[in-house]
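Subject: IgGFc-binding protein N-terminal domain-containing protein

B.,
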Amino acid sequence: MGGRTLCLLLLSAVFAYADNSAPTIANDFVFTFFNAYIDSEASDVQLVAKVSNNNNGTANVVVTSPFPSFNTIRVSVAPYSILKIPITPESIEAQFPGNQTNHGRIVVEDKGIRLQSDLSVAVYAHAELANRQSADSFLVLPAVHLGTQYVAVTATSTSIDTEYPNMIAVVAYQDSTQVTIGNQTVTLNALQVASVATMDVLSGTVISGNKPFGAISGSTCGIVASTCGYEAVMLLPVGGWGTQFVAIPFVDLSTNYYQVVANTNNTVVSAGSTIITTLNAGEYREFQIGTALVTSNFPVQLIQTGQNTGNHYNFVGAPFFLQLPSTDKMSNTGVLFQPPGNFGDEGGVLLSYILRIVTNLAGAGTIQIDGTTTGALHYKHVPNSDFYYYESITSSTTHSVTTNNPGTKYSVITYTYYSYYGSGFNCAFDLPIENFAATTTAKPTIQL
Ligand SMILES: *[C@@H]1O[C@H](CO)[C@@H](O)[C@H](O)[C@H]1NC(C)=O
Ligand SMILES: *[C@@H]1O[C@H](CO)[C@@H](O)[C@H](O)[C@H]1NC(C)=O
Ligand SMILES: *[C@@H]1O[C@H](CO)[C@@H](O)[C@H](O)[C@H]1NC(C)=O
Ligand SMILES: *[C@@H]1O[C@H](CO)[C@@H](O)[C@H](O)[C@H]1NC(C)=O
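Prediction pasted inline below.
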């Protein structure tokens, strides 16, 4: 493209929100991928950054990385549309085939990815095997929401095959960021990635730093209910955790697995009126429940895990990680999304795409999906709560969720099933602004 120069206006909405929270749509993001699957026989891994432009204007996006063979990407995202940006080369994954280090010691690499846009956008990272044997997506937290303390969640059971370790990967936003993962400390420059891979369970590992950074954790192929799949989630900083969550089993399941981690001693976690566990800081618990309101006396991070639903197609679904936003983080910001599934329905393969909306009492009957209001009677009540949810099979195309009702708050989740395949992410919700350095970033220049 020509030599046109656009100035990115990184005017943050920070002062517009009296409670210091903002939706997870923004202008500046850093993230990384860790390996989706290490398998000498597996097909290629495709990595994509999905940019959702829910504005009546073109978003100009630039993607950079210090990874040696990475070429800067400059693209435009049309108004009210989603663009899948392929991230290459595949070896930018933190641990890649033929070079695996699962000894649990920190490896530092130049594998961070930065995505900037002149208009506020939502960004979802997705990794998928070309043979559709494994996939997962995560919402990329904007740089303004990055914190300095996280607690990892990984699989509690890994394959006996040492090619499928649990992983933590952190990405620095600024130079001279000192990060401690468990009992190891490193100093990173901006967009350097520190990762650990081990067959041990890393759930509960505390990750802290002296400057805000991003953290992704999960498993290259974690086992849940005897099926393994790629599990990846961009962790919420502890300042973004909550004490009340709506837990709903994925479609075709009556109960579902979850993992909860704590950052305060004597954290009591309950589902309805039943106490599930009491955790100390840095402890985790895996549990299985049906539809319930999950509450705690101190903030926790709650991850829902996909699993094989064993339904009539047999082996439909596989493990994946879904970060559940706490109910106080629900938003009324319009959402534009496509369900996960990079290869879609090509080759006559039909994936199952699902949409879930969780809302408050004011929300049932006041939310538009693709411009049409879904009646209140279509919502189900979450027992012992003031919350309702709507879940529906949908298509792989672009969808919108909006409301005009000031009292409505919702969270929107989408996930996709196929044989041995499960992948899901959260659309938009509100989070506290923690990274004030990112609210005053110098305006970068995009060459188009
Ligand atoms: C989008 O912008 C165009 C040009 O400014 C305007 O004509 C149109 O009404 C806008 N659409 C919406 C949905 O705001
Ligand atoms: C393996 O990874 C290490 C650490 O990034 C790197 O120094 C080395 O060159 C890699 N080896 C191969 C064969 O890719
Ligand atoms: C660090 O933690 C790991 C994992 O818990 C443990 O195996 C190792 O012995 C610890 N090392 C030190 C020096 O404490
Ligand atoms: C939390 O509990 C652990 C284990 O009992 C203890 O070692 C630690 O000192 C406690 N932390 C605080 C802040 O009380």
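The pocket of 2-acetamido-2-deoxy-beta-D-glucopyranose (ligand 4) is lined by residues 265, 280-281 (CB under 6 Å).

T.
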